[in-house]
Amino acid sequence: MRQCGVCGTEGAEDARFCPTCGGEMRPAPEGVDTGAEDTFEGTDRVSYCTECGAVLDSGNRFCGACGAGVGAAARATPPRGQSFLDDAVTMSTLCHLSTLASFIVPLGNILGPLVIWLLRKDQLPQVDMHGKAALNFNISITIYGVIGIAISLALMLVLIGFLLIFVVLPRSLCGGWSRPSWQR
C-alpha cells in the first residue's frame, strides 16, 4: 500500500500519483494498518485514463499511474511539460484581451491581437478563428472612430462658422470694419 505525500490518501501499490490531489505516492509507513482492501469491487461503469489507459477508481480526480487529471481536474491542469500558453482557450482569451493594449500603445488594439494571431494561428485552430474575429472587430472600430472624428471636426467647423456669421455680418453691415472717418 502506498500513501500520498501531500494529502495522505492511500492508494494501490503500483500507483505513482495520488488519485485525489495528483501528488507523488510514497510507500506507507511500516506497521500501520491502513484498513484498505486489495480487492477491486467491479462497477457497471469502468473509466480509463485518457493519457495512459489505466483503470480509474470512481471518484478519482487524477490517474494513479501517470498523474493526469480526470474530469474537471483534467481541464483545470495542463498536461505535464505543457505551458498554459499552449492552451487554445487561454490564447483565444488573450487575443481578445490584448485589445486593451491600446491604452498603452497607439494602435495596440490592432497590434496585440495581430501578434498573438500570427504566433499561434498554425498551432491552434481555435486561436486562428478568434484572432481573425478580434482583428476584424478592432480594425472596424478603428475605421469607424477615424470616420467619426472626421465628421465631428467637419460639423464643429460648420457650427463655428455659423456662429461667426452672427458676429461678422452685423459688424460688416454697419460699417464697423471700415476705417473711421477721421482716418480717411
UniProtKB/TrEMBL annotation:
InterPro entries membership: DZR, MamF_MmsF
Keywords noted in UniProt: Membrane, Transmembrane, Transmembrane helix
Main localization category: membrane
Subcellular location: Membrane
One Pfam family named in its UniProt record: MamF_MmsF
Membrane-crossing residue ranges in chain numbering: 100-119, 139-169
Keyword Transmembrane tagged: yes
The protein's name in its UniProt record: DZANK-type domain-containing protein
Species in which this protein is naturally found: Geodia barretti (Barrett's horny sponge)
